[in-house]
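Crash report, auto-generated. Payload:
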Amino acid sequence: MPQIEQLAATYSSQVFWLLLIFGLVFFVIGKGMVPKVMDTVAMRDKQISDDLAAAEAARAQAEAEEDAWRTRENANRAEAQALIAQAKSEAAAASDKKLKAAQKRLDKKLADAEVRIAEARASAAAEIEDVASEAAAQIVQRLAGIEVAPAAARMAVKEAM
Amino acid sequence: MATEAKVDPMHQFTIQPMFGTDQLELLGYNIAITNSTVWMAISAIALWVFVAGGMKRQLVPGRWQMAVESFTGLIDDMLEANIGKNGRKYVPYIFSLFMFILFGNILGLLPLGVIGLHPFTFTSHFTVTGILAIISFGIVLIVGFAKHKLHFFSLFVPHGTPVPMIPIIFVVEMISFMVRPFSLGLRLFVAMMAGHVLLEVLSSFVIGSSNAGMQYFAIAGVPSFILMVGICALEILVAGIQAYVFALLTSVYLNDAENLH
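Recovered output after restart:
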């Protein structure tokens, strides 16, 4: 077994070179390069988690904006409805007023007409009385040859009518 | 030819000085650059290339970057599961340990003999695995005593131990604690060596039986060869598992040092 047979002759060389080479490996690779590799990994992990957090934040913001938009939209819709309702009621009120005015005008015209009719009827009646008394006076004159005074004829006509 | 086909399954573990450096010394100690040194260096360079390929730092990672990041993520998750948030500061050490052992294990399995090179698995030497285990154990001791001072010894007295039992339990727990670096180092060394010896022995059956004649090759060589294919796959699995076990146990021990029980 060379490991034992050569021990006395080679141990110093083995120990020296192992310590030297393993020391170099430790300081150059272990201390010098491995931390950088691990930094890269840590940086990548951090970047990934940061990106995820940013995406999450963006999603939350989008949701908040959608909510805001929805409330604004609802408010706008309610306002529009109110506007329509107001316009409707205003229009109804205006037409109501117009109808009332027209009605009033018609009523007044009707009353005037009735007055006029009554007047006409009265004057007509008076004229008939006049004509009838004149006619009665003339009829009496022709038939009986009696001259009747217009006032008496009128009195007689009034009594007869 | 047939008589020279004797295969020594242990020869693959022989350490040989390379580039004529067998007399290289430091403070009187031999520090020859050996095949073991070269394979450690190759593992380290391969690991550097692998990790450097994953340093493009792209937001959307490519395949290579993804592979490197999955390894760092594996170590990170393991430490977080075993130790908690405090465990993240050990990622550089555990990552270096795991990847260095993993690359050593797998590079040692490469069939480079086909092109005339001799792969050498440095993790099949208990000198190497022992040092790594001692480093891990040393960190556990330093962290434990620095964080909990002498209170660290309460690790050896589990909760709810009856008072008369405390001295005995303390000794037993102490022994099991002190055995940790040995079990840690030996586990990896034995697993790697056993697999390589098995492959070598089976390959010697294939070669020996083919030299002995067609009927022997059909009886012993072909089944051995088929078995070798399966065991090669198993060894790749073992290479990964043993590196993982080493790192996992180190993090479990570090948990004791960080959080006591």
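Post-recovery validation: The mean pLDDT of chain A is 89.
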